């Protein structure tokens, strides 16, 4: 069975000792790892939580986004350079946490639009920076997995077709793809087909319901999803990413205006759901 993770953004975007009892309970449920959002995160806090995760046997993955001032597809080279430096900072903090994988839509700035369809030069700018970031991440033993988002949160990569096009240009062994069922539910014609399309590069997977609530409670085609993952021989993480209003600042920043599920209901029932689906489809 694949390793199962849970993103602690369901409780907080901050990395602090307040997460320790949450991490202990995730471990007791059976989770193999926890995923953390890395922003303007303190180095000591990352090292402390990383050490704590190792002490209780939890592995770590991380996720991040870029701001408009760090947009690596911007026409201004100084903005792109700032984006590369930001990604390097996130890689450093991820290394402090003991992360294996850094995922997220860091191919471009989050919720930043040009009022035009993506241009080839923008893919080229993104690829140039991501290739350099791949070199840096390889030294830290961290795999970079850029994420396609829905059309309301980005425009460069909404689909696996676009993400694959970008990765062709990046052409780096340390830069692979991630798949998120929440975004794919909006942007892909068929989830199974999209998973097969990106399969040779697929290295991280978010299990996310259509409304960001508990996996299995909505209309994402889970049988198609898990059977396809089994068919392509996917061996990476299956990480639940669900959002709540427990951290109001973070919730407001990503447009979460209601409570989809309580965090522990999501964690407990989501874990059982992934185990059941994995057993059903031979993952």
TrEMBL record:
<feature type="domain" description="Xylose isomerase-like TIM barrel">
    <location>
        <begin position="23"/>
        <end position="252"/>
    </location>
</feature>
<protein>
    <submittedName>
        <fullName>D-tagatose 3-epimerase</fullName>
    </submittedName>
</protein>
<dbReference type="InterPro" id="IPR050312">
    <property type="entry name" value="IolE/XylAMocC-like"/>
</dbReference>
<dbReference type="InterPro" id="IPR013022">
    <property type="entry name" value="Xyl_isomerase-like_TIM-brl"/>
</dbReference>
<dbReference type="InterPro" id="IPR036237">
    <property type="entry name" value="Xyl_isomerase-like_sf"/>
</dbReference>
<dbReference type="Pfam" id="PF01261">
    <property type="entry name" value="AP_endonuc_2"/>
</dbReference>
């Amino acid at each position: 069975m694949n390793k199962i993770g849970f993103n602690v953004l369901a409780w907080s975007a901050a990395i602090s000792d307040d997460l320790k009892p949450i991490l202990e309970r995730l471990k007791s449920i059976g989770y193999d790892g926890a995923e953390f959002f890395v922003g303007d995160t303190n180095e000591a806090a990352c090292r402390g939580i990383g050490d704590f995760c190792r002490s209780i046997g939890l592995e770590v993955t991380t996720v991040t986004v870029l701001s408009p001032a760090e947009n690596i597809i911007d026409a201004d080279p100084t903005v792109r350079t700032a984006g590369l430096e930001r990604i390097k900072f996130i890689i450093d903090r991820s290394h402090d946490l003991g992360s294996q994988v850094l995922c997220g839509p860091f191919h471009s700035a989050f919720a930043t639009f040009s009022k035009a369809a993506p241009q080839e030069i923008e893919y080229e700018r993104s690829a140039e920076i991501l290739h350099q970031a791949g070199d840096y991440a390889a030294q830290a033993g961290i795999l970079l997995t850029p994420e396609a988002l829905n059309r309301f949160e980005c425009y460069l990569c909404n689909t696996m077709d676009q993400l694959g096009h970008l990765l062709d240009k990046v052409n780096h062994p340390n830069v692979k793809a991630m798949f998120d069922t929440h975004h794919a539910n909006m942007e892909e014609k068929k989830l199974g087909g999209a998973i097969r399309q990106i399969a040779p590069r697929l290295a991280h997977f978010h299990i996310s319901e259509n409304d960001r609530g508990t996996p299995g409670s909505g209309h994402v085609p889970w049988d198609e999803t898990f059977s396809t993952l089994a068919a392509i021989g996917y061996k990476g993480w299956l990480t639940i990413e669900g959002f709540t209003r427990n951290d109001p600042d973070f919730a407001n920043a990503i447009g979460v205006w209601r409570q989809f599920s309580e965090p522990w209901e999501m964690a407990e029932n989501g874990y059982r759901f992934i185990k059941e689906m994995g057993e059903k489809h031979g993952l």
